[in-house]
Design a protein that fits this description.
Elements lengths: L2 E7 L10 E8 L4 E3 L4 H10 L5 E5 L2 E5 L9 E11 L7 E7 L3 E4 L2 E5 L4 E5 L4
Antiparallel strand pairs: 1-7, 2-6, 3-5, 4-5, 4-6, 8-9, 9-10
Length: about 130
């Protein structure tokens, strides 16, 4: 029985899952200050860190929080938006090895069917 190894990359977020939870007029103590003023720049820095849990974005820059304990000290901060990261909604890459018991192969395409998914693999020349 052939065994295929495939890398699957999910692009986009999980349906019905919001990557960021917005909390208006909220900030938390501790964190690391960055002089970034745009939401996209601030959240991008957070996403590059494996430990970032939230950002506070205000008129003077943003603060990255690397511990969920920081969020327990949230307080009212007019003009600051806290964005809490939901890591379950991040796109993921995973590698799986599948023993292809139920497969068909024709014209350079292998189709593997399991109880959980149908995977089409193109065996195309590079």
């Amino acid at each position: 029985m052939p065994v295929y190894r495939a890398q699957l990359k999910l692009i986009g977020s999980v349906t019905g899952c919001s990557l960021w939870t917005r909390k208006a007029n909220t900030a938390a103590e501790n964190g690391v200050f960055y002089g970034l003023l745009s939401e996209s720049d601030c959240t991008a820095v957070c996403l590059t860190s494996s430990i970032c849990v939230a950002v506070d974005l205000g008129p003077h820059g943003c603060v990255l929080h690397n511990s969920s304990d920081d969020l327990t000290t949230a307080y009212n901060a007019p003009g600051v938006t806290q964005l809490v990261l939901n890591r379950r909604c991040l796109p993921t890459t995973s590698t799986a090895t599948v023993a292809a018991e139920n497969y068909t192969e024709s014209i350079g395409i292998v189709i593997i069917k399991t109880d959980f998914f149908v995977l089409q693999i193109c065996k195309c020349p590079k």
